[in-house]
Amino acid sequence: MYVMNQNQRRLVDPRCIPETLWDHRSGTLKLPQALAQVYIDLIDSKGIRSLALSRSPGEHPVGGISQEQTDKHFAQAFDGSAARMELAVLDPMDATSPSSNELIRSVLGHHVCIIEAPCGAGATAFSLLATIAELRAQRVLPRLPLDVVLIGADFSTYARDYAREVLGHMATTLEEQAVFVKGEFVPWDVTDKMSNTDLIQTITLRSARVNRRLLVVANFNGFLERNGNRKRSQAQLEELFRHVSGEGSFAIWIEPCMNRAIANGGLLRWICTLLGTSWKRFVRILGVNVSDDPIRTCFSHFKIPIDPDHTARVGLAIIGMQLSRSEK
Ligand SMILES: C[S@@+](CC[C@H](N)C(=O)[O-])C[C@H]1O[C@@H](n2cnc3c(N)ncnc32)[C@H](O)[C@@H]1O
User: Which atom of ligand 1 is found nearest the CA of 78?
Assistant: First the structure.
């Protein structure tokens, strides 16, 4: 059943989410099987299953420049980050629907450039693509040809290697659902203006012929909230958003739903302030009423792929932004 009438409030009605992605009875997310399997296979091929199973409550690995930090982040956070994006796309509790609709609209068909910065192992972008592929496989969305230019940018060479491997393993499943992905994973240091220029040049070159652009910033709180990194990154983030802006451009900023991201003074409140001031000319917040809080939140649980008898909690805080330009 196709549920994508533009007049409907939801492009994918929560009642039509297939059981392969959402257990309606218990209200539990399941990662798209193909993505869960790639994650398990990579965990095993790299010999990091025990690392994946030894998560400590309250510890949130955020990756980093070294192999060790990257392995730990992949082993312990890939599934949670993927679940967070799946929650944003499916929005089964009707909590973040403007962003859910725009995310789905971005990848319905034609030619899209998805930029995930930072990408890590690509959990967030691959979750979007794998969820869309599963919705197509279950005939909830039509199987229109979709060409994707995926640009992943990250500081860590090990993280970019992971992202390439995930794409290598996912490509066939995506292609079976007419999703054809060309990936490019480039070095990026958000605190460095020349590195940011390189990323922007890559985006400009690669997205010249696309009809939509989607900028995804996910789970960057851990880095940006340390050692004055927020201040050192502000100019580059503004430049990145400004350059991606234009007709057909949409962005989301996703963080775990924790006080330190959404409370006054937190990262997402800082983004809201920028949206109302220096980013005002190229960003429109997605929402129903002007008075709505731009930050939407929700919580769920997901089945842990390497320990399917158990679930973990996932919290989502999201700002959806139409990157459309306006006069002064
Ligand atoms: C928590 S991960 C998020 C990755 C991905 N968006 C996800 O949802 O899985 C944070 C990433 O930021 C990267 N990072 C750390 N410092 C950075 C910097 N200065 N510039 C760009 N990326 C950086 C790390 O290598 C890591 O992959």
Answer: 9
- CATH number of 18-322: 3.30.230.10, 1.10.10.10, 3.40.50.150, 3.20.20.140? 3.40.50.150
In angstroms, the first-to-last Cα distance of the chain is 44
Predicted confidence (pLDDT) per residue in 149-206, tens digit: 999 999 999 999 999 999 999 999 999 999 999 999 999 999 999 999 999 999 999 9
pLDDT of residue 236: 98
Asked if 125 and 159 touch (Cβ cutoff 8 Å), the reply is: no
Ligand 1 neighbour 159 (Cβ under 6 A):
yes
The pTM assigned to this predicted structure is: 0.96
Q: How far apart (Å, rounded) are the C-alpha atoms in residues 251 and 35?
A: 23
Residue 109, burial from CB neighbour count under 10 angstroms (0-12, 13-18, 19+):
middle
Q: Are 99 and 139 in contact (CB under 8 A)?
A: no
Residue 124 Cβ contacting ligand 1 at under 6 Å: yes
Query: Domain limits of the chain?
Result: 18-322
For residue 228, the SS3 value is: coil
Residues 96-147: pLDDT tens digits?
888 999 999 999 989 999 999 999 999 999 999 999 999 999 999 999 999 9
**CB 42 within 8 Å of CB 18:** no
Q: 125 CB less than 6 Å from ligand 1?
A: no
119 lines ligand 1 (CB under 6 A): yes
Region 312-320: mean pLDDT is 96
